[in-house]
């Protein structure tokens, strides 16, 4: 990967990770104020992460870690790194149960008496795959009751965490390649992934 494209990736990553949360206490009430990155930056990053997030994709992050684990099975240090990366991914990006997700959002409909609740991970996936990237009707319908803000608020940190994990994995693979442990073809790291100019 060329330097200019990495710099652009880091700029996008910094923009995504600069979320601010302000908590105010006022007469027994607690208010949380979220300052999220621009919607366009999150959606652009989500589109680039599309092959990495769903389990059915060939480039799914955990599949890459499984391959890395196989390559590094004789290196205790790299095996330890791979296990830690797998655990971090499950915690931050793909929790295995609803209870492992950061939070839930509950929305009552006073007119019908119905209520909807989704954990943060499913809200984020409803935003990314139900609305932005794939327009999956089931995921879109699942997130419809929550409007636009709650799914976006869940998607922004998920996208940022996925980007951080992916860049860490890329750097680890590069380090392995320098020590000839991974033995990847040189062309892989030289392939252009971003335009130098759109003119």
Describe this structure in words.
Mean pLDDT is 81; it is low at 1-7. The chain is an alpha+beta fold and 199 residues long. The strands form two sheets. It has a two-stranded antiparallel sheet. Strands 3-4 form a two-stranded antiparallel sheet. Helices cover 55% and strands 12% of the residues. It is elongated, with a radius of gyration of 19 Å.
Give the helix/strand layout.
Layout: H1 3-17, E1 20-26, E2 29-35, H2 39-49, H3 61-71, H4 76-92, E3 104-108, E4 115-119, H5 120-132, H6 137-144, H7 149-178, H8 186-190
Antiparallel strand pairs: 1-2, 3-4
Q: What attributes does this structure have?
A:
199 residues; alpha+beta; two-stranded antiparallel ribbon; disordered N terminus
Say what oligomer this is. single chain
Give the strand tally.
4
- Structural class by sheet pairing and helices: alpha+beta
Largest sheet: 2 strands, antiparallel
Average pLDDT works out at 81
Q: Which regions are unreliable across 5 or more consecutive residues at pLDDT < 50?
A: 1-7
Helical fraction equals 55-70%
Distance between the termini: 21 Å
Shape: elongated
Strand residue percentage: 5-15%
Strand order of the largest sheet: 1-2
Count of helix runs = 8
């Amino acid at each position: 990967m060329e330097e200019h494209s990495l710099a652009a990736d880091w700029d996008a990553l910094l923009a995504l990770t600069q979320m601010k949360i302000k908590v105010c206490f006022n007469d027994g009430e607690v208010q949380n104020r979220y300052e999220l990155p621009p919607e366009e930056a999150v959606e652009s990053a989500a589109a680039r992460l599309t092959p990495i997030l769903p389990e059915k994709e060939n480039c799914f992050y955990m599949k890459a870690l499984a391959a890395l684990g196989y390559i590094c099975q004789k290196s205790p240090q790299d095996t330890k790194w791979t296990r830690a990366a797998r655990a971090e991914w499950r915690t931050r990006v793909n929790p295995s149960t609803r209870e492992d997700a950061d939070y839930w959002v509950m929305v009552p409909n006073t007119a019908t008496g119905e209520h909807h609740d989704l954990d943060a991970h499913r809200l984020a996936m409803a935003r990314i795959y139900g609305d932005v990237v794939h327009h999956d009707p089931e995921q879109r319908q699942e997130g419809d009751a929550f409007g636009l803000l709650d799914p976006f608020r869940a998607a922004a940190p998920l996208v940022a965490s996925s980007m951080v994990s992916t860049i860490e994995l890329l750097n680890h693979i590069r380090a392995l390649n320098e020590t000839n442990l991974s033995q990847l073809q040189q062309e892989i790291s030289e392939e252009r992934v971003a335009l130098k100019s759109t003119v």
